[in-house]
Specification:
With 233 residues, this protein is of the alpha/beta class. Helices cover 40% and strands 18% of the residues. Strands 3-2-1-4-5 form a five-stranded mixed β-sheet, with helices on both faces. Strand 2 and strand 3 form a beta hairpin. The longest helix is centred in the last third of the chain and has 20 residues.
Length: 233
């Protein structure tokens, strides 16, 4: 495991960046997590997985750039839950994500895992689906293990998809994947979900570019428009 962490740090590691450092808008990180329950304020973070989306300039298009999933820019770790082992593990939850008690106990120390995560993301913006859940889990785990949490901004792809489709109803990731013809190899497995979410971002990109210039800050502003859609049912 140490060798794996060293490889990430040597290739992508940027160290712990100061809060004033500029955002790396040429590389977005699409992330997904698995947890020991459904309450991100209380339940343990069990896994983090992510894949990088890199941007290349498009010749002949002012301000244009094209996103590409870079499979060589991937991250995945299991974390050992902090504190005493649960006397009554949530078996139904384990059946969903497949991370058994043995795998949890064999996970990486949370402090080392969260340091590796910080090194991997650098100053790249983060993307998730229903990202408030992922963000709360990761930031709480970081504060518990390291006394800090990354301040990288997050984009919620569910909000962006709703705005681009003028869809007032809250829809699941499965709904959006099916609509765009995306197959997820293993739903509720963090690495597979992160890759499927990255594919959804690419599917949304043409419609997104009709509405904004594609910079992360303007995409965030566009996604914020979900608040002005009609009330959801």
């Amino acid at each position: 495991m140490t060798t794996l962490l060293q490889r990430w740090r040597s290739r992508w590691g940027r160290g712990t960046a100061p809060a004033a450092a500029a955002l790396d808008d040429a590389r977005w990180i699409v992330a997904d997590v698995e947890s020991g329950g459904l309450d991100p304020r209380r339940d343990p973070l069990l896994a983090i997985a992510a894949v990088g989306v890199h941007f290349a300039r498009v010749q002949g298009e002012r301000g244009g750039r094209r996103p590409c999933i870079v499979l060589g820019d991937r991250f995945e770790l299991l974390l050992r839950p902090s504190g005493a082992p649960s006397a009554s593990p949530d078996k139904a939850n384990i059946l969903v994500h497949g991370i058994g008690i043995g795998a949890q106990r064999a996970g990486l120390d949370p402090a080392e895992a969260l340091q590796a995560w910080e090194s991997y993301i650098g100053r790249s913006p983060l993307v998730g689906f229903h990202s408030a859940f992922d963000r709360t889990l990761i930031e709480r785990a970081g504060r518990d293990a390291l006394g800090r949490a990354p301040d990288n901004p997050w984009l919620d792809l569910e909000h962006l998809a709703a705005v681009l489709h003028r869809e007032p109803r809250q829809r699941s990731l499965d709904d959006w994947l099916a609509q765009h013809g995306i197959t997820c190899l293993a739903r509720h497995q963090a690495s597979a979900d992160a890759l499927a979410t990255a594919q959804l971002l690419l599917k949304l990109w043409p419609a997104l570019r009709q509405r904004c210039d594609g910079r992360f800050s303007t995409v965030l502003d566009l996604a914020a428009g979900h608040r002005f859609l009609p009330l959801r049912h």
